[in-house]
Amino acid sequence: MIDQRHLRVALLGAGSVGSQVASLLLQHGDELADRAGATLELVGIAVRDVDAPRDVDLPVELLTTDAEALILGADIVIELMGGIEPARGYLLEAINSGADVVTANKALLATHGPVIFDAADQVGAQVYYEASVAGAIPIIRPLRDSLAGDRVQRIMGIVNGTTNFILDKMDAEHLTLEAALAEATALGYAEADPTADIGGYDAAQKAAILAGLAFHTTVPLEAVHREGITEIDKSMIDAARKAGYVVKLLAVCERLLEAGEEAISVRVYPALVDRKHPLASVHGANNAVFVQAEAAGDLMFYGAGAGGIQTASAVLGDVVSAARRHVAGGVGVAESTRANLPILPIGHVSTRYQITLEVADQTGVLATIAGILSDGGVSVATVEQTTAAGVDGAPTARLVIGTHTAREQDLSDTVDHLAASDVVTRVASVLRVEGSN
Amino acid sequence: MIDQRHLRVALLGAGSVGSQVASLLLQHGDELADRAGATLELVGIAVRDVDAPRDVDLPVELLTTDAEALILGADIVIELMGGIEPARGYLLEAINSGADVVTANKALLATHGPVIFDAADQVGAQVYYEASVAGAIPIIRPLRDSLAGDRVQRIMGIVNGTTNFILDKMDAEHLTLEAALAEATALGYAEADPTADIGGYDAAQKAAILAGLAFHTTVPLEAVHREGITEIDKSMIDAARKAGYVVKLLAVCERLLEAGEEAISVRVYPALVDRKHPLASVHGANNAVFVQAEAAGDLMFYGAGAGGIQTASAVLGDVVSAARRHVAGGVGVAESTRANLPILPIGHVSTRYQITLEVADQTGVLATIAGILSDGGVSVATVEQTTAAGVDGAPTARLVIGTHTAREQDLSDTVDHLAASDVVTRVASVLRVEGSN
C-alpha cells in the first residue's frame, strides 16, 4: 500500500455543474482517494450568495463568499463559475500559489488560454479542462495525448447541445425555429438569452480549443469564422431532408494547403450533412466529435454534451488526474502550440455548397445562371428545377444547385452576381455541404 | 523556448505495426519533438531476422537482432513483438533499467499485467498501452483518466475487427461462417490460424484490460467468460435479422450487485443487439466501445480497431506521452486496482435470452414448454411459433422464445430440461440479448 498524500481541493462555483461536483466528491471521496493515491478533502465552495437556493444539498459549513482565502493553501482549484472575470483572476491566483487547476470554462480558455497556460508553465502547474468541450465526452485527452503522435486532418464536431436539439426537433417534428427554441427553453436546454448557443458563440469557443489541441497552434477566438442557426428556417430543413441531408451546426477544424504551405481553418456554421454520415445520427442535445487523422483514420466520440452531472464526470476525472500528478511529482506538461500554423480566413476555404434560387420561369434562365456560375469558377455537380406558383400568381421556378468543391471567396462573389442578376428573384439559401470533401 | 531534452527510443519488433511506427517516427520526428518538448531519436529496431522482407523500407543500419543491447540506455522502449516471451522479459528489463515502456501487447498485459505494472511502480516508470485495445481508438486514457472520477456501470465493446467483419458479412451478404471467414482471410483481416479471433480469445484479453481499468480491479484472464463465434450459423443470423437484431461478438464488462455487495462480470460472447443500438451500426472490421457511467451517462468511442498504421497512431501517442513525462519529471502513476471487486462466474450473471427450439407439432407442446420455463424461474417476454415440414416430412414447429432478464444458471438448467423433454426435438440456439437490460 502506497502512503496516501492528503490534498486540499477548493471549488469555485456551485451552479448546476459545481453542486454536482461537490456532491459526488463528498459521496465517493474514499473511492476517488483509492484511485488517486491521495485523499481529496473538499475544503470549501466559493459562492456569490451562501443562502441562494440550490438543486443539490451542500454542507453549509463548506460555503463561503471568500474565494481568495479558499484558493490560498489549496492543492487543486476547480473553477466552475464561468465567464471571464473574476474566474480569470482566481485561476491565475491559484496557479501562482502552486495549485493545479481544473476548469470547464470554455469562454475563458478560448479568449485568455495563452495567459493561463503560460502562467501554469512558469510555475510548473497543470491546467485540466476536459469538461470545457462536449461535456462528459472524453475529447481533450484523446486529442492532447492519444493523437499526439498523429497528424489530425479534420475535425467535425457537434459541440453545442442546444442547437442540435433545436435542429433535430425542426427535422424530426417539422417545427419552426421559434417553436423548437421555445421547447428547448422549456426543457432547460436553452438559456433565457439563447444568443451564445444559437448565434454559434459557444460552439466557436469550443472550436478554438479543439483546433488548438489538434493542430498544436494557438487559435484566437477572433480567427474562428462563426455563423449561428438564426437564418435556418423550416423550408431549408425540409429541402435538406428531401435531398438526403440533415442540417447540423458544425465546428469544423481543418488542416489544408495554401500555396503549398500548411495552414488551418477553424469555422462554425450550419451545414448540410449526408444522412448516412455518423454525425447525422446524433440526436437531441447529444454531442459528437468526428476526427480524421492521417494514421488513425476516422474516429468518433459520442455522448452527452452538457448537463450538470454529466459535466461533473469530466471535472472529477480531471481532479483525479491532478491528484495523481501531485503524487507522482514533477512539473506540468506545457500546452503544445509550437506548430503555430497560419489560420486562413473563411474566403480561402474550399467546400461544397448547395444554392437554392428562386428564378423567373422563362426561356434561357438556366443558361444565364450556368454562365454566371461558370464565370465565377464554380463548377456545378447537380441541378434540380421545380416550378410553382409564385406569391403574385406568376409561375416561379426554384433551382437547387449542388456545386463541386469551390473556394468560399469565389462562391460568395458568384452568389452576389446571381443575386444581382435579372433572372434571379431571390437567393433563398446558400449552405455548405460537409462530410466527405 | 524550452530546452529540449534528448530521448533515446528503442523499438522491439518490425511487423505491420512496428514498421509503421518506425516509418512515422522517422518521417515526423521534428514535429513530434516539438509536441513532446524532447527530441526522439530512434536508436534501433530489434528484429528476429535483419534480412526478412518488410512492407515498409526501414534504414538497414537501425536493424539489429540484439534486443538486450538496444534496451540498455533507452529512455523509451516500444514493444511490438507480441506474444508472451521474449516480450515479457524484455519489457521487465526495460523497466528495470529505468525506461518507460509502450506496448500494444494485449496477450501479455492480460496474463502478466500485474507483474509488469508492479515492476514499473517499484522503479517509478510508466507503462503505456493505448494500442492494446481497439487499435487507433482512444479508449485506455478515457477509462484510465477521463472517467477516473466517475463510476463505470457497463462496457459493451466490439473489440475484435475480424469477427465483426465476419458477422457483418454474414448479415449483409447472407454468407455462411466459412465463406465470410475465407473472405476475411483473403483480405488479410484473419490470420492463417483464426482461432484467437473467432474463438474469442483476443476479445477476452481486451475485455480483461478494459474491465481492469473501468472497475479498478485486477482481472485475471481466467476470470473472463469466453465464447467465440464458431457456433454461429447462417440460420441464427437470419433469425436475428427477422427479429430486429444483429449478432455481434461483444466484450461485456458489468458492475452488479451480488447479495447486496458490489461485484463485476467480464464476459465475451456473440449476442443479439437491437438494430437501433449504436453498436449495431459498427460495420466491417471497425471497433467501438460503448460505455455507461453513473454520472457521464452513455458514451461511445468508434474507429479502426486494427491495421498497422492505425495502431501505430496509438503507439506514437504513447511515445509522445512518455516523452512529456520524462521532460516533466516525477515518477509514473501506478495502475488503479484498489477497488478489488470480486469477479462473478457466468452463472451468476443476469441477462435476457432468445431461445430457439424445434418442437413436435402436437397439442399441449406450448403448455409443456411454458411449464418447464416457469419451473426454472425463467419468465417469458415473447413467443413466436412457426410450422414447417421437418427433415422426415412430418410437420415441425419452431418456437422462438424471448425471455425477461434471467440468471444464467437458471437459464442454463432450464435449457437442459428443455433439451431432455420429449416434446423438444432440438434446441437450435440460445443467444443472450444485450443492450438495454
Structural write-up:
Two copies of one chain form a homodimer. By secondary structure, the first copy, chain A, is of the alpha/beta class. Chain A has three domains: 5-135 and 309-328, Rossmann fold, CATH 3.40.50.720; 140-304, Dihydrodipicolinate Reductase, domain 2 (2-Layer Sandwich), CATH 3.30.360.10; 350-434, Alpha-Beta Plaits (2-Layer Sandwich), CATH 3.30.70. In chain A, 36% of the residues lie in helices and 29% in strands. The first copy, chain A, has 14 helices and 17 strands. Chain A has helices at residues 16-27, 29-36, 67-71, 87-96, 106-123, 140-146, 161-173, 177-186, 195-198, 201-215, 234-242, 308-328, 365-375, 408-420; strands at residues 5-12, 38-46, 63-64, 76-79, 100-103, 127-128, 152-158, 225-226, 245-258, 261-274, 286-293, 297-304, 350-360, 380-389, 395-403, 406-407, 424-434. In chain A, the strands form two sheets. In chain A, strands 7, 8, 9, 10, 11, 12, 13, 14, 15, 16 and 17 form an eleven-stranded mixed beta sheet that branches. Chain A is elongated and about 80 Å long.
Q: Please work out how many helical segments of chain A DSSP would assign.
A: 14
Q: How many distinct domains of chain A?
A: 3
Our Rg estimate of chain A from Cα atoms comes to 24 Å
Shape of chain A: elongated
Give a count of the beta strands of chain A, DSSP E runs of length 2 or more. Answer: 17
Q: What is the helical fraction of chain A, as a range of percent?
A: 25-40%
The CATH topology of the largest domain in chain A corresponds to Dihydrodipicolinate Reductase, domain 2
Largest interface: A-B, 65 and 65 residues
What do we call the CATH homologous superfamily of the largest domain in chain A?
Dihydrodipicolinate Reductase, domain 2
Kindly provide the name of the CATH class of the largest domain in chain A. Answer: Alpha Beta
DSSP strand content of chain A: 25-35%
